[in-house]
Amino acid sequence: QQPVQSPQAVILREGEDAVINCSSSKALYSVHWYRQKHGEAPVFLMILLKGGEQKGHEKISASFNEKKQQSSLYLTASQLSYSGTYFCGPRIFNDYKLSFGAGTTVTVRA
Amino acid sequence: DVKVTQSSRYLVKRTGEKVFLECVQDMDHENMFWYRQDPGLGLRLIYFSYDVKMKEKGDIPEGYSVSREKKERFSLILESASTNQTSMYLCASISQGAYGYTFGSGTRLTVV
Prior knowledge:
The structure holds two protein chains of two kinds. By secondary structure, chain A is an all-beta fold. Helix content of chain A is 0%, strand content 51%. Chain A has no helices and ten strands. In chain A, strands 2-10-9-4-5-6 form a six-stranded mixed β-sheet, with no helix packed on it. Chain B is mainly β. In chain B, the strands form three sheets. In chain B, strands 2, 5, 6, 7, 10, 11 and 12 form a seven-stranded mixed β-sheet that branches. Chain B is globular. The A-B interface holds A 1-2, 5, 32, 34, 40-45, 47, 55, 87, 89, 96-103 and B 31, 33, 35, 40-45, 48, 50, 56, 58-59, 90, 94, 96, 99-106.
């Protein structure tokens, strides 16, 4: 069962902020976030682990509320390079498969 | 860097043909996955495999099968291609204990 992402799309000007939300109906072990630029493969951004540990390497932050089975991705002071489609992929414990959300398309304009 | 290679970037096949999509990874990953990507629907899991000769159905396995005879290779098979299987197909892999998937560049399949 796919998680629900919102919004479906967002348009920003450089320097503006945005939040992308992801909700799951299942108890989660972790949440993955990926970004896909047009015509390219999705690229791993970060993982939010149960217990609050965050691992990633981009200047984009995220949170994970285990009780609500929700995660949010924060794009702060957006740059043109942030444009793309963002997917969340919740993971159930001891199961490597991910069911991805439908994606959120982010367009950052100069 | 880990590489996941999909043999074809674009493929055009006729209805009823048997179609093979190949995926090879070069980092000894145990876990491999096939997704299809359609506008508005995101990435949907077709099949996955956690070991050689092992396969499990994902969320939308109908009309597909898979083969994993070697650890590095995971093949998706469309037994009798239909027009509703026109889509972008993405292969991904991850090792035990790793954090994120590595995706291949995708195969855009058109069934006419």
